[in-house]
Amino acid sequence: MSIGAVLERGDARDALVLPAGRPSVALAELPRGAGVGTSAPRRIAQRHPRLEPVLVRGNADTRIARLDDGSTGLDALLVAYAGLHRLGQTHRATEILDPVLWLPATGAGMVVAEHRTGDTPIRDLLAPITHPATATALAAERSTLATLHGNCTTAASVHAILTSTTVTVDAAVFAPDGHTAIRTQATGAANQADAVGRRAGEQLLRDGAAALLHALPHTP
Q1: What is this structure's pTM?
Q2: pLDDT tens-digit readout, 174-202
Q3: Which fold has domain 14-96?
Q4: How many distinct helices (H) and strands (E) make up the chain?
Q5: Domain residues of the chain, as ranges?
Q6: Edge-to-edge strand order for the sheet containing 76-80?
């Protein structure tokens, strides 16, 4: 499969969702030992040390419904804010987490359309709906993750920010216990997004990211 179109990026930030009717609090204000549901190793690794991460499955609307009816026993969820927006449920976000402190997922907020590799008519049909800046950011982010040999179960963050001529990649790999993070940044020409992303990944590996990656418990 190949990516044929990349739509304009939505909000890349994560959001805190509390059970319906619960007084609004921030993540850092939840009581010690509160259970916070997520399916992302990246979020688990970045958790607040007083809180208890709980692996949850299902679509965002299903998770929220189960949070509200109490069947999960959770105190809160961490979800993609872009997902809440697409579900028309942004009002459920009691806190939108600062992306400088709470690093977003690789490709966060992006929607892509794939096609069979080599299917030229479909590729040409999809190409006009691509958002060029988002496609450039995605190329940089995917290049970093590929350099790390990572995937959607890797506790890592790669986030690209564009100007008219440059792309800056902020990237990090996290230890499972959340106490260690290796971070780096790479900047270069926007038309060399793949190379900039690869450079960020190589720097993380030089700084010792491989040891953290091998220690991470991958979700089956």
Answers
A1: 0.88
A2: 987 667 889 999 999 999 999 999 999 99
A3: D-Maltodextrin-Binding Protein; domain 2 (3.40.190)
A4: 7, 10
A5: 2-10+107-215, 14-96
A6: 52-55, 35-38, 76-80, 14-17, 93-96
